[in-house]
Amino acid sequence: MSRQRKRIHLAAHFPGVNNTTVWADPRSKSQIDFSSFEHLARTAERGLFDFFFLAEGLRLREHNGRIHDLDVVGRPESMTVLNALAAVTERLGLAATVNTTFNEPYELARRFASLDHLSGGRAAWNVVTSSDAFTGENFRRGGFLDRADRYTRAAEFVAVARGLWDSQGTKGTPDGTPDGLRGGTPGGTPRPFAHTGRHFTLEGEFGLPRSPQGHPVVIQAGDSDEGREFAASTADVIFTRHGSLEAGRAFYADVKRRLARYGRAPEELKIMPGVTLVLGDTAAEAREKAVEIRRQQVSPQTALLTLEQIWGVDLSGYDPDGPLPDIDPDPDAQLAQGRVRHGDPLAVAAKWRALSEEKGLSIRQTVIEATGRQSFIGTPEAVAAEMAEYVAADAADGFILVPHLTPGGLDDFVDRVVPLLQERGAFRTAYTGPTLRDHLGLPYPGERRERD
Q1: Distance between CA atoms of residues 166 and 270, nearest Å
Q2: How confident is the model over 138-153, as a mean pLDDT?
């Protein structure tokens, strides 16, 4: 495929579950009312996005023994929301984040197959794992899973789910053998299913006929070596967080290289970093807006809480407008419950200190600079050009847009940037197929072929 013809893939992440949402903005609405989900989904479909993405939260986070002050009470269950959205959208993919640690393969395979049927082939599963005993307290198995086992359970979980979906045969094959399934009316003869493995033992028959996609699209988020390998072996889309063109290109090349060992072609895994965007009529206006948004996202309180998650100690006595603490983090301490502590605390602290000293930044300013996602900031023309270049340079296959407003945070992008991407030939002007696999250019189960 030539670089000139490489198309951008776009997805919409629903905001409203963490401090990146700017609740002080008068345009900010409920993160629970169905009208909010419907607004963002309809906007994404109007913009011809590939899919709509919902995160997951299984327990309210705590900090220093208290409910996290900035956490949001009320995160509806993803599959329930997406089944409702299937009735008010026609082509938009519907992606739910569901944990493999606290669910069972048969039940979850059935739920995703149901969504795929109800939506006409638009279901996607963002596979996440947990070794967090704090979250596990909400479940019967509370925290039993060792951290080292989370990906082995996830890999077996996905394999079992796909086996269940395959057990119902494929379109036009009475014996159930793969024939290069395409979208349409499913068929085939069901057959018994049996699996015996380290984490699961199942024997029976799946309760639904083959769904339009055969397998719902599998998404995975993870930047560790283990996560990259899991994505290369299992996922259709990987949700990343790399913040620069150079880091994106390195990640892209590394993950795409890994696909060959699993007999997969590079186009069978789409790499889509989560990004933010700020538009302005001029570059200066966009930069000014971006600075104000980041200040609203990282309040003085948020800055100290973020620092405490790394240092592992109470820093409430420090001035958020003052310098970073002169003490080292406690690598064995953990004030935050329900949050992942990314990386080596001592290494992160050293990196942040170097940044603070180099630029003369306070605690709050350091957190703002160090925790920002890859952002596109500028005029609509500049943002369209930068996005197109990012994809053309093999730093990504597309982007999952994370707006800072609920639910109208994508309105301007769809109205002002999407038409410019289309003029460049970098984005579709119409959906070309009914299913999410069609949108993403992914093969159907048993099928290998080139797509635009």
Answers
A1: 23
A2: 70
Q: Give the gyration radius of the chain's Cα atoms.
A: 22
Instruction: Give the model confidence (pLDDT) of 303-356 as tens digits.
Output: 998 898 889 888 989 999 999 999 998 887 765 554 555 568 899 999 999 999
Cβ count near 387 (within 10 Å): 24
Instruction: Compute the residue count for the chain.
Output: 452
Task: Give the H/E segment covering residue 110.
Answer: helix 105-119
Amino acid 405 reads L
Please name which of 60, 214, 69, 38 lies closest in space to residue 137, comparing C-alpha atoms. 60
Do 216 and 115 touch, CB atoms closer than 8 A? yes
d(CA 429, CA 419): 9
Q: What is the pLDDT of residues 57-87, one digit of tens each?
A: 776 676 676 766 556 666 789 999 999 999 9
* Continuous H helices in 240-344: 245-258, 283-297, 300-311
DSSP letters spanning 406-447: TTTTTHHIIIIIHHHHHHTTSS-SS--SSSHHHHHTPPPTT-
Between the alpha carbon of residue 157 and those of residues 161, 205, 442, the distances in Å are 6, 17, 21
Between CA 255 and CA 221 the distance in angstroms is 13
Q: How far is CA 351 from the centre of its chain?
A: 26
Encoding tokens for residue 139?
């479940």
Residue 282 burial by Cβ neighbours in a 10 Å radius (0-12, 13-18, 19+): exposed
Q: Summarize pLDDT for 22-49 with one digit per residue, the tens.
A: 888 899 998 889 999 999 999 999 999 9
| pLDDT at residue 112, as a whole number | 97
CB neighbour list of residue 285: distance below 8 Å, 6 or more residues apart: none
Outline where DSSP puts E strands in 175-233: 193-196, 201-204, 217-221
Q: What is the CATH number of domain 3-281+375-440?
A: 3.20.20.30
Q: What is the rounded distance in angstroms from the CA atom of residue 444 to the CA atom of residue 162? A: 12
The helix (H) or strand (E) run that includes residue 383 is: helix 380-392
What confidence tens digit (pLDDT) does each residue in 198-214 have?
888 888 889 899 999 99
Question: Are 151 and 159 spatial neighbours (Cβ–Cβ below 8 Å)?
Answer: no
List the end-to-end C-alpha distance of the chain, in Å, as a whole number.
8
Each domain of the chain, given as residue ranges in start order, spans 3-281+375-440, 299-370
Question: Cα(193)–Cα(202) distance, rounded to whole angstroms?
Answer: 8
Global pTM?
0.87
| β partners of residue 193 | 204
Model confidence pLDDT, tens digit, residues 422-441: 999 999 999 999 999 999 99
